[in-house]
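Late entry, written up from scratch paper. The run itself happened at the end of the previous shift, but nothing got recorded in the book at the time, so transcribing now.
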Amino acid sequence: MTIFQAVILGIVQGLGEFLPISSSAHLVLIPWLFGWNYMGITFDVALHMGTLLAVVLYFWKDWISLFKGALSRKPSNEKRLFWYLVIATIPGALIGFALEDKAATVFRSPLLIGIMLILLGLILYWADNRRQLRTLETMTLMEALLIGLSQALAIIPGVSRAGSTMTAARLLSLKREDAARFSFLMSTPIILGAGILSLRHLQPSDINLSFVIGICTAFIVGLLSISFLLRYLKTSNFKVFVGYRFIIGITVIIIYFLR
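Output as recorded:
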């Protein structure tokens, strides 16, 4: 892997992890389109660790408040949200662990990825047309669990963890910005868990300059992506991401059959 490839894949991860366009799909498609050797699932997860650092740094104040709320005996929004995040994480973690092998093999078909990019785009478009009536303070335990279940679908590249969770939140009529915030907070434990499991395969020989640069790039771009999306959704909708998913999905399907 060259430094150029590491930078490109780091940018792809930093953008795709937090925007509803599927980072895992792009990490498969970029090497496929340009004829690069697949860097391996360990490098993919290492890039995810870069974006994990980004989300932890961006929301560190939120996490401190959530932990304080969880440890307090008094009921509070922070206490409730903390345990909702814990419960919402469980389905994705269990299904991701059970289907880990398929994620690295069966689900990597460019045709499947192209179809899922379009399909989730359609659902996101439909969900985003719902009225914005509610904030995180009104979320129920069952709704948090449903959003967590939607996160499990992201084991298939092209679905998008951010896309599936934001779509589910919008179907429940949460405001766009709150849907994104809950999705970002929920990404912290799931990325951390996946990273710990996959990095057990990491060998000292895997760590080189390109490896480190890829992680640093994912961290910087991820930080910028979070900041951008939260500001963007205050005044805009998800249609630009839906359009992007359609264009990329159709392009991938055409190239797949032409090849």
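Residues 209-232 form the longest helix (24 residues).
(Scratch paper discarded after transcription.)
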